[in-house]
Design goal:
Layout: E1 10-16, H1 24-37, E2 41-47, H2 49-52, H3 59-75, E3 84-87, H4 93-102, H5 107-111, H6 114-122, H7 129-144, E4 149-151, H8 157-173, E5 182-184, H9 218-226, H10 244-257, H11 261-267, H12 273-299, H13 302-331
Parallel strand pairs: 1-2, 2-3, 4-5
The structure holds tryptophanyl-5'AMP.
Tryptophanyl-5'AMP is lined by residues 13-17, 25-26, 28-30, 48, 51, 138, 141-142, 150, 152-153, 155-156, 190-192, 201-202.
């Protein structure tokens, strides 16, 4: 009798820090792609709460934001029955592997990370060792699960490259210990820009008017887009280099409608900037409306969120300890 064999799925891993409001940048650069890719992979989606501690957090807000991000993952369409949705601090192997990887990561590499430089400048009074070693914890997240693919926005590319370098370095001493992961970075819209300063990326740690939060009400979204910085010309043209504000609005609109920014440019030929802003706000509002509705319903059932995270942590822990045990053995730690 013939049996149909399906090849085992590859592993996909990504994480978001549960800090501040999750933005449209997080959604377009990362979260949306998690949902698009989820069916084709064995997936883990993490709330990176240990990473969040590298800058000072209000403990109550961090706890609230962690539950809220879990609900948002699900509201955006991730199914906890299929994908593992869990919280980083619930799986102690992350911190344990991070220590080992710290011993395989060079100071020079860490000091070249642009995120470290940016965050050190922003938090000059708190340049702590955790902030410096942030990328080796991120490498541990990814390598623990023998990950093949990591969907992220463009700002995480450098961290992904370092993860690959660390994995390759360790593998050269201990062959085949880690799968070397690939980054999945969307070709367009991998870097959504701030609405108030389109030379910078949209970031949840900046002023509120500079970003759209996934949970913003429709009138707030309209107001923020109306105030979005463009330029002194009148032509709607996709030219990120010379027209960052207009190009950003075209990228957002294109992402919402699953077309390219160039196609949006053609559709809006001859229109003024007001029309572009209105098209972008209405497209964002209609994309976010069902997500917000599901989010509210999910947040009404805290027990369901807690149960989801508990089962996610158990499933993640099972996989993580398999890799960690192998690593401890290979590097020579005495086994009982
Ligand atoms: P975080 O929490 O800063 O951002 C989460 C995801 O959103 C993407 N992103 C953007 N994409 C496009 N335009 C933007 N303006 C924008 N802002 C943020 C980020 O690239 C990211 O994919 N270090 C990570 C979290 C992390 C992680 C991991 C990611 C921890 N461990 C392991 C992947 C794998 C971070 O701070 O993301």
């Amino acid at each position: 009798m013939e049996t149909t064999q399906t090849a085992p799925k590859k592993t996909l891993y990504s994480a978001i820090q549960p800090t501040g409001s999750i933005t449209l940048g997080n959604y377009i650069g990362a979260l949306r792609n998690f949902v698009l890719l989820a069916d084709d992979f064995d997936c883990l989606f993490c709330m990176a709460d240990l990473h969040a501690l590298t800058v000072r957090q209000d403990p109550a807000a961090l706890r609230r934001n962690t539950a809220s991000l879990a609900a948002l993952y699900m509201a955006c369409g991730l199914d906890p029955e299929k994908s593992i949705i869990y919280c980083q601090s619930h799986v102690p192997e992350h911190a344990e592997l991070a220590w080992i990887l710290n011993c395989f990561t060079y100071m020079g590499e860490l000091s070249r990370m642009t995120q470290f430089k940016d965050k050190s400048a922003k938090h000059a009074d708190n340049i702590n060792a955790g902030l410096f070693a942030y990328p080796s914890l991120m490498a541990a997240d990814i390598l623990l699960y023998q990950t093949n693919l990591v969907p992220v926005g463009a700002d995480q590319k450098q961290h992904l490259e370092l993860t690959r370098d660390i994995a390759t370095r360790v593998n050269s001493l201990y062959p085949n210990l880690f799968t070397v992961p690939e980054a999945y970075i969307p070709k367009t819209s991998a870097r959504i820009r701030s609405l108030s300063d389109p030379t910078r990326k949209m970031s949840k740690s900046d002023a509120e008017d500079s970003y759209i939060a996934l949970l913003d009400a429709p009138d707030v979204i309209r107001r923020k887009f109306r105030r979005a910085v463009t330029d002194s010309e009148t032509e709607i043209r996709y030219d990120p280099e010379n027209k960052p504000g207009v190009s950003n609005l075209l990228s957002i609109l294109a992402a919402m409608e699953n077309v390219t920014p160039e196609e949006e440019e053609a559709k809006l030929k001859g229109c003024n900037y007001g029309a572009l802003k209105e098209a972008a706000s209405e497209a964002v509002i209609s994309t976010l409306a069902p997500i917000q509705e599901r989010y509210q319903a999910l947040m009404g059932d805290k027990e369901h969120i807690a149960n989801t995270l508990k089962s996610g942590a158990e499933r993640a822990h099972y996989l993580a300890q398999k890799t960690l045990r192998k690593v401890y053995k290979k590097v020579g730690l005495y086994q009982l």
